[in-house]
Design goal:
Layout (H helix, E strand, L loop, with lengths): L8 H68 L2 H21 L5 H24 L5 H7 L2 H74 L13 H50 L8 H32 L5 E5 H10 L2 H4 L5 E5 L4 E5 H18 L5 E8 L3 E7 L7 H4 L23 H11 L3 E6 L5 E8 L4 E2 L2
Parallel strand pairs: 2-4
Antiparallel strand pairs: 1-3, 3-8, 4-5, 5-7, 6-7
Helix pairs in contact: 1-2, 1-5, 2-3, 3-4, 3-5, 5-6, 6-7, 7-12, 8-10, 10-12
Length: 480
């Protein structure tokens, strides 16, 4: 079965809206149609019952009028009363005729037929018998039976109205129950369709968001695929094309850095060797001004050597994700790194403050040393004259934590979000002539994440920047 491919987000929105609205529209239509049918069905019935009630009450009144006219005719014998009785009789029979289709057969047999026969008998007596005859007097006694039957008929009609009203209420209740049942069914169906529609819309958008984060995190290895409508799918294809281009550019950048680093390292080695020989006065004695020049050369060659080493370390970290864990004395590692900066910090009288217990952790020694070395180098570079670089380490519930705090200007919130990116340099400026490449902190990030740890920065109140390195619970830990 071929999958249906939507061409656009607009088409998806239209189809989803129709799918969600359709059950609700059906429920509204069903409710309106049900009650409309119920109203139309009972409108005629109500009119019929109202007419039956009116005819029933009118018939009972006509019986009273016919009895009065009949007695007047009996006493006075005037033909006018006889004609009036005929008119009343005609109206009475018309009422019975209209009641006949309303009443059920049993009521017709019990009330209508006897009532019509009794009144017809009296009508015949008045029309044919003399006014003062004994036979007419006997016939008029039948009004007692007529009155009784008329009252019974009236009660039967009222009962019929009550029964019809009860039946109508039951039908209305059933209709309400059906509408409620359909409404209860429509709510979960509509909710399900709405959730499905939200999933159809949010899934490709979530894939786009994930793809953008993937590119932002420099993950160029995994393909990008976005489902959903054709336009979003095409956008996913464009993002995947962008991923491939960025991956190619990243490879070219790494290749360039690798080649440049190696190409610079060879002549730099000769330059350092030559300056060392001159500093040792192997070619011959130097004047004081010449020694100053040699010292400047040595200092700058060391700076250049560090820059090249950072480039090589960065390339090595990008190309190798292997981690070699070994038990390492953390305090000894930190002390050895700090010793390398003692001479560098003397001109500005920057001193170190070290505090932490003797701990042994199973870590990648080379990577942890590179991370510590770079954050200490960064702290020294930004520390002012007579500043203090504090290095603390401790064991936490999560694992190992190393904190390096300087007395520099700190790092702005905008720079904190990007400080660990390669080649990014923030607003703050280093002390001294060494400007850096922006690779040191990215090396810190790569070294920590390779071991499953993390690095982050915050501004320490009353001090400068505080860089924190965290490693998860090690395989080996203890006191040495």
């Amino acid at each position: 079965m071929n999958r249906v491919r939507l061409n656009s987000v607009l088409q998806l929105l239209v189809i989803g809206s129709i799918a969600v609205v359709t059950p609700l529209a059906f429920a509204v239509f069903y409710a309106a149609n049900s009650f409309d049918e119920l109203v139309n069905r009972h409108r005629g019935e109500v009119q019929q019952l109202v007419g039956a009630t009116r005819d029933s009450m009118s018939s009972r009144n006509l019986v009273v009028d016919m009895e009065r006219v009949a007695l007047q005719y009996q006493l006075l014998g005037q033909e006018g009363f006889q004609n009036l009785f005929n008119d009343l009789y005609a109206s009475f029979m018309n009422n019975l005729e209209r009641l006949q289709p309303v009443l059920p057969p049993d009521a017709q047999e019990a009330f209508l037929a006897p009532l019509a026969a009794q009144v017809a008998e009296i009508h015949t007596a008045i029309r044919e018998l003399p006014a003062n005859s004994a036979e007419l007097e006997v016939a008029l006694k039948g009004f007692a039976r007529v009155s009784e039957l008329a009252n019974d008929l009236n009660r039967r009609v009222r009962q019929l109205v009550d029964d019809r009203i009860t039946a109508t209420e039951e039908r209305i209740g059933q209709a309400q129950g059906h509408v409620f049942m359909y409404s209860v069914l429509v709510i979960p169906i509509t909710t399900l369709l709405l959730l499905l529609f939200i999933y159809w819309v949010s899934r490709p958008i979530g894939q786009l968001k994930q793809a953008i984060h993937q590119l932002g995190d420099n993950d160029y290895e995994h393909n990008i695929h976005v489902g959903g409508p054709a336009d979003l799918n095409h956008l996913g294809e464009l993002l995947d094309w962008l991923r491939q281009r960025l991956h190619e550019l990243e490879q070219e950048k790494r290749k360039f850095l690798r080649h440049m680093s190696h190409e610079l390292k060879t002549p730099l080695a000769g330059l350092r060797e030559g300056t060392d020989l001159m500093g040792e006065e192997i070619p011959g004695p130097l004047t004081d001004s010449q020694k100053d020049v040699v010292n400047i050369l040595k200092k700058n060659t060391h700076t250049l050597q560090r820059l090249i080493d950072n480039l090589l370390d960065y390339n090595l970290l990008l190309e190798s994700d292997k981690v070699h864990l070994e038990p390492t004395a953390i305090d000894s590692l930190i002390h050895r790194v700090v010793e390398n900066y003692q001479l560098l910090t003397k001109p500005r009288n920057v001193r170190f403050e070290l505090q932490g217990p003797s701990l042994t952790f199973s870590v990648d020694k080379a990577k942890l040393r590179a991370a510590v070395d770079n954050i200490i180098s960064n702290a020294v570079s930004f520390s002012p004259q007579n500043g203090v670089v504090s290095v603390y380490w401790r064991e936490t519930e999560a694992g190992l934590e190393i904190t390096v705090i300087d007395d520099g200007p700190g790092i702005s919130e905008r720079d904190q979000a990007r400080i660990f990116e390669a080649f990014y340099q923030g607003e703050a400026r280093r002390q001294g002539s060494y400007k850096g490449t922006g690779l040191g902190l990215s090396i810190v990030w790569e070294c920590m994440t390779a071991q499953g740890g993390r690095a982050y920065v915050r501004n320490e109140p009353g001090r400068g920047a505080a860089f924190i390195l965290e490693l998860p619970n090690p395989h080996i830990r203890g006191t040495v």
